[in-house]
Amino acid sequence: MAQEPTPETKPEEPKTDTTTQPVKGIVKAIIETSKGNLELELDAEKAPLSVQNFVNYVNKGHYNGTIFHRVIPGFMIQGGGFTPDMQQKPTDKPIQCESKNGLKNAKGTIAMARTNDPHSATTQFFINVKDNASLDFPSFDGWGYAVFGKVTKGIEVTDAIVASPTTSKGPHSDVPAEAITITKVSIVE
């Protein structure tokens, strides 16, 4: 009769973590906001790291209760990183920039927000409210901004968000005067 494996010899159980399940193809997501819903198609073929990153944060519930904290008419709306009282939410490690994936910063596309470091994107994203070809071109660092999907329904919601009056809150400018909340983000099959 075989002996029971000891803790040292027992094979490790596979770990199932829904935040790390690989995504493929086109991933559909819904962003529910206080102004209405946005339906998205995320392109995991052309932007696998960005889509996986976004899906991981969705699965953790990270975006639920955050706000669109930066709204600039004729440019974009940005969200995913701050609570209504402008507290920044914790993030995981930044991801590699995928701006050279062939997807363009056209009206209605969603892209990863980042700092001047091209490989600094974490939770924040932006939706282009017009064609922003200048964001496709490499800046002095050789990188643009990585598009990873597009709005397929609810573009009028982005129009309503970008039309919202803005103010400054602490060091942040272009903050909607009335919080525009991301109530829930979900991945749909």
UniProtKB/TrEMBL annotation:
Positions of region (Disordered): 1-21
One term of GO molecular function: peptidyl-prolyl cis-trans isomerase activity
Name assigned to this protein: Peptidyl-prolyl cis-trans isomerase
EC number: 5.2.1.8
All residue ranges annotated as the PPIase cyclophilin-type domain in the record: 36-187
GO biological process, one term: protein folding
Protein family per UniProt: Belongs to the cyclophilin-type PPIase family.
UniProt keyword annotations, A-Z: Isomerase, Rotamase
UniProt catalytic activity: [protein]-peptidylproline (omega=180) = [protein]-peptidylproline (omega=0)
The keyword Membrane appears for this protein: no
EC class (word): isomerase
Domain of life: Bacteria
Bias type Basic and acidic residues, positions: 7-16
InterPro entries: Cyclophilin-like_dom_sf (IPR029000), Cyclophilin-type_PPIase_CS (IPR020892), Cyclophilin-type_PPIase_dom (IPR002130), E_coli_cyclophilin_A-like (IPR044665)
PANTHER family assigned: PEPTIDYL-PROLYL CIS-TRANS ISOMERASE CYP38, CHLOROPLASTIC (PTHR43246)
Functional description taken from the UniProt entry: PPIases accelerate the folding of proteins. It catalyzes the cis-trans isomerization of proline imidic peptide bonds in oligopeptides.
